[in-house]
Specification:
mainly beta, 126 residues, 52% strand, elongated
Length: 126
């Protein structure tokens, strides 16, 4: 398997990551329930120094006030926006000894934790 032209087996920690079980996702959870919807990515194709805005709605649909990273009151819906510049799609090119922008299509994952993905989208980088 390769990533950006590099053999993943050449990095000793990659096999361990593949075999590791996710014991704790990045979110500790909440006492309420949330719904994610209305994902937009604009523009869907980046070029130059453009920013991509990833936006979605998150609603507290539970019976209690709660927080899912950002605090959301009972019955409330909030629009969340995250801007991604070209640096979000960089990797370190070992042969060039510099950060390089990867071009291509990238998957975007939105969720309450790494184990609970609610929305997916794509962005293309030129």
């Amino acid at each position: 398997m390769t990533l950006f032209g590099l053999s993943l087996e050449s990095f000793p920690w990659i096999p361990a990551l593949r075999q590791a079980k996710n014991k704790a996702a990045f979110s500790a959870g909440s006492y309420s329930n949330f719904e994610y919807k209305n994902l937009t990515v604009s523009p869907a194709q980046l070029s130059g120094d453009q920013l991509a805005t990833v936006a979605f709605d998150i609603s507290n649909i539970g019976s209690r006030a709660g927080a899912d990273v950002a605090e959301i009151k009972l019955g409330e819906t909030r629009r969340v926006e995250v801007s991604l510049n070209r640096r979000a799609f960089c990797y370190y090119d070992v042969s060039k000894h510099q950060w390089t922008v990867a071009s291509g299509e990238f998957d975007l994952y939105i969720g309450r934790s790494a184990a609970e993905i609610e929305l997916t989208g794509k962005v293309s980088v030129q």
